[in-house]
Amino acid sequence: LCRRCARSLRARELGVFAEILDYVPAEPVLYSIAEETERGASVGNIAKDLGIDASTLSARKFRMITGSSKQYFNINASTGALSVNEPIDREQLCELKSVCLLNYELVLENPLELYRMEFKVLDINDNSPSFPLSEYHINMPEFLSPGARFTLPSAQDLDEGANSVQNYTLSPDEHFYLEMQIRGDGSKYPELVLKKALDREQQATHRLVLTAKDGGNPPKSGDVLVIVTVLDTNDNAPEFEHSVYRASILENSPSGTLVVQVHATDLDEGPNGEVRYSFSNTTSADLQRMFSVHPHTGEVTVNGVLAVQRPLLEMLIEARDNGAFGMSSTAKLLVEITDVNNHGPEITITSLSSPIPEDAVPGTVIALLSILDKDPGENGKVTCQISETLPFQLKPSLQNYYSLVTSELLDRELTSEYNITITATDLGSPPLTTQKTVWVQISDVNDNAPVFSADAFDVFVEENNPLGAFLYQVSASDPDIGENGRVSYVLRNSTVAGSALTSFLSMNLANGSIYAKRAFDFEQLKSFHFQVEAKDNGSPALSAAITVNVYISDQNDNAPAILYPISQNGSVAVEVVPRLADEDYLVTKVVADDEDNAQNAWLSYHLAHSSDSTLFQLSPHTGELRTTRSMRSTDFLKHKVVVVVRDHGEPPLSSTVTVGILLADTLPQALPDFDDSGEPPPLLNATNIYLIASLACVSFIFAAFIFFLAVIRLCRSCCAGCCTVRERSPADLGNGSLTKTYCYKACLTAGSGSDTFMFYNTCGPTGTTGPSAVVTERHLTGQKKNNL
Q: Is it true that the peptide bond before 565 is cis, omega within 30 degrees of 0?
C-alpha cells in the first residue's frame, strides 16, 4: 500500500509545463551510499556530474522525484551539492533484495530536461543473526547410535552478502558436535550429530548453545538454547520422500486450492510410526495464515488471499510421529507464485499544455504521461497508443513515461478541439486495457483571409432611384474567431464615368451595405463596376477583394421621338402621291426611336385619324403608310392622317405626327395648306348632282341596248337548233321510216353555269299541238334525266 501511494505521489509531483523536451540522457547517474549514513553527509555534486550550471538550478525550478515514500536526499540549490536528508535503512527499504537501488528523476524547466539518478544503498553489518525462537527442544531416544542427526533451527540475518549468516558453532559437549548440510537448492543448514551414545540414567537433559555468526567486520552473532531430552523409546524419526518440494500456483488461486502433498515415512510401528504434518516453527506466521497443511494427508492448500509481493515463498514442513516422545524431520517447500494479469495499466497525466496554437510545429509536446502496471514480468509490460486519425502521436521518453506530441500541422477552423483517447494495454493473457481521454483545445491564429460567398456580385438598380437608396450588402466570412474573424469593408478607390466612385456610392464599414449617393440615369450610364475590400482585424491583417457589377435597369421615362417625317415649326409634313397610285402604294414610312431599353423601347404605330379611312392603312410594326386601294380620279387631292407612335412601357408613352398627303403627278411649286380640319368638302352640291344624273341616264340606255342585242341573239340560236323527227311504228322499223314527226329546240342560257339541254317536242302527240311533255337534260357529268 505504501509503494502504491508513493507511485501516485510521484506522478502528482511531476507537474511540469512541457513545450519541447530538449534532453533526456540514455544512462542514469549512479551514486553509492552506505545505509545508515548520517543526515547531512555529502553524496556528490549533481551539477558537476551532469554538467549543469549550479547557479541556474533555482531559476529552472529543479525537482527531485522518486517513487519512495521518503525523500532521502537533498540538493543545494546554490552549489548543486547532493547530501543525505534522512538515514536509509536498507533492510526496511529493500527487504531481501540482493541489490538495493533508489531511483530518482531530476526535472529541470526552461528548457524541460529530465535526468535519471540511481542510488545504490550499500549494506553495513548493522543486524545480528537471530533465531525465531528463544529456545528449541529436541527429544532423543537413548538407544540412538552415534551418527544420528537432528536438524537444528536456522538463523536469519537481514544483512546481505558477507554480512549475512556465514557459519554456526555449538557449545562443547562430549555427546554432540555440529555439522553443516546442503539442501537440494544449495542452501546450508546446521545439523546436530550424535557423537557418543546417550545414557538417560546418567544425564536426561543436555543444554547446548547454538551460535550463528555473520561475516561482518567486526562480526556479529546470535545464540539460541537447544535443549536435548533423552528418551527411552521411538528411536526412528519420520523421513520425507524429498528434502525439497517445489510447487507453482496462480496468485489468484481461491482458498482450498491444492498446492502440493508431502509424504514422510516412519520405520517404527504403532503410534511411534504414525506421522503428523505441520508447519515448522521457523515458518513465518504470515505464510502459515495463507497456507494450511493437513495433519494426516500432508496436503498443503491455500488458506486465504495470497497477498505477497515475492514471487517465491519458502516454508518448512515438519513431520512428527505419534510416539511418546515424537521424532520429527523437516522438508523445505518452495512455492512459486505465478503472476496473473489482474492489474490494468494506470495512466497518469503529469503535465498538460492546453490550449495550443494552431500554428504549432509538428513535434510540439502537448502532455507528459506516466503509465504503470503493478503486475511483474510480461503482465507488467505496457504498450500505449492513440488513434492514427488524430494529428498527434505518443513517443516514449523516460521509463514508463510517454510524451504526447503533434505529428502534423493543426487547423482550428477544421477542428477546434480534440478528445484524445489514450489506450494502454499490457502484455498479459488475456491483456488488460485502460483508457484515458485528454481534452486539448486549439487556439486561433490569424491564418485565414476573409472569403466572399461568390467570385463577383451583380447588383441591379432601377434608374431614377432616390438618394441614399440601399443597393446591396456584400458579405465575407472569416473562419477565424475573435478579432481575427471580425471583418470590415471599404470601397477601393476608382472612377466611374470620369468621377470618383465615392461620389456615386457610400458603404457601411461594419456590415458591407452599399448605398447610392445620387440618382442613376440609364440613358447616361448603363453599368459600371468597382471593388470592395474585406479586411479582418488580425495582426497582421489579412484581406480579400471582390468585384461588384452594377447594372442600371431602365424605366419608361422617355416618349418615342419621331425621326421621320419631320415637322418643322409646327407645320404638317407633306408627302406627294401620284394621282393614280396603285393599291399598296408606299406613301411614307414613319420612323421613330425611343431612348429607353427593352420593352420600353418596343414601338408600335397606330392611325389615330385619317381624312379618308378607306384609302390608307398603317403597318403597326414597321410604320409604313400604304394605300388600301388604287387611286381614283374622283379622290380628293388633299388628305391628312395623324399617326400615333406608342411604346410598351408601363405606363406606355406615345408621340404623334401629322402627315399631309397630296395627290399629284408632279411636285407642285407651292404646297397647299393642310392646317384645316382635314374633312373633305361636301359631295352633293349642284354640279355633282347634275353629273351623277347624266351618267345614270347614259348608263341605263347603254344597258338596255346591250340587253336587246342579247335577246335577239338568243332567239336566233334557238330557231337554228330545231329539227323534225318522225316516230316510227314497230312495223316501220324494218323499212327505216317514221310514222311521227318531232321538233326539238335547244336553248342555252347565257351566263349560266349549267350545261343542261332541254329538248321540246313541238309537234306533240297525234292529235295535239304544242310542245310535248318530254324534256331531256344533259349535264357535264354525262348523266341524263327524262321527265314525262
A: yes
